[in-house]
């Protein structure tokens, strides 16, 4: 299982510094939506050196104008996000562009119902992101949610999960063996030593 570290709500200078530190420690480095809104894809691309090990995910949360946003986003990132709530046409267009560029598309499944989900689980190379909303007040059991999603949609091959993931939950998800990647934000980047903390997550996920 891959470790994706989400960097968000910091200065661009801090984000670049964290990305450099974590590049050879984790599998995917995510630059979050707020960071992209604050600075823009172009400025981030100019400031961030090419990563040597980790893939770069830009959480652009496309909902429309898909081809345009993905065309611009892929100039900087390896993985881009599109909302599952987007129209079927938008999803088809960005998937086609993603395949053409030999990159990856991440479908954010936040706040969509079973009917809509059933209509969009036929993009075989897409990553389906089970994502607990930041503003949601209810509890979130990542492992149980992943298991339920897998049971309902067994054909989905690439599942990612985010939402309050700590060391114990990361280990549980790794042992469960369903999710392809786990997304950790504050539990790594807000610690005194993000590199050491990321190493701990990698250890429990691969033990």
Structural summary, described in words:
It is a single chain. The protein contains nine helices and eight strands. The chain starts with a strand and ends with a helix. The protein has helices at 12-22, 33-47, 66-73, 88-101, 114-119, 142-152, 167-176, 186-189, 194-205; strands at 2-7, 28-31, 55-62, 79-83, 104-108, 127-131, 159-162, 181-184. The protein is an alpha/beta fold and 207 residues long. It has one domain (2-206): TIM Barrel, CATH 3.20.20. The mean pLDDT is 96. It is globular. Helix 7 packs parallel to helix 9.
Task: Give short descriptive properties of this protein.
alpha/beta; 20% strand; 8-stranded parallel beta barrel; 207 residues
Please outline what is shown here.
Helices cover about 45% and strands about 20% of the residues. It is of the alpha/beta class and about 210 residues long. The protein is globular.
What structural class do helix, strand and pairing data support?
alpha/beta
Overall geometry comes to globular
Counting copies of identical and different chains, the oligomeric state is: single chain
Helix content: 40-55%
Largest sheet, described in full?
8 strands, parallel, barrel
Spatial separation of the terminal alpha carbons: 11 Å
| Count of helical stretches | 9
Protein name: 3-hexulose-6-phosphate synthase
Pfam families: OMPdecase
GO molecular function, one term: 3-dehydro-L-gulonate-6-phosphate decarboxylase activity
Keywords: Lyase
């Amino acid at each position: 299982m891959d470790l994706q570290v989400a960097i968000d709500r910091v200065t661009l200078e801090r984000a670049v510094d964290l990305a450099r530190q974590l590049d050879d420690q984790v599998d995917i480095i995510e630059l979050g939506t707020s960071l992209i809104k604050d600075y823009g894809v172009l400025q981030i691309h100019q400031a961030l050196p090419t990563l040597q090990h980790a893939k770069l995910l830009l959480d652009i949360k496309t909902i429309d104008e898909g081809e345009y946003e993905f065309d611009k986003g892929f100039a900087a990132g390896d993985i881009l996000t599109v909302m599952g709530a987007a129209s079927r046409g938008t999803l088809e267009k960005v998937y086609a562009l993603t395949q053409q560029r030999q990159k990856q598309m991440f479908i954010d499944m936040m706040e969509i119902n079973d009917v809509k989900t059933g209509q969009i689980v036929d993009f075989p190379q897409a990553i389906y992101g089970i994502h607990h909303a930041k503003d949601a007040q209810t509890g979130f059991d990542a492992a149980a949610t992943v298991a339920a999603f897998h049971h309902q949609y067994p054909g989905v091959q690439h599942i990612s999960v985010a939402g309050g993931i700590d060391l114990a939950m990361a280990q549980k998800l790794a042992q469960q063996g369903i999710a392809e990647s786990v997304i950790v934000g504050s539990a790594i980047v807000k610690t005194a030593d993000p590199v050491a903390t990321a190493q701990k997550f990698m250890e429990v996920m691969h033990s």
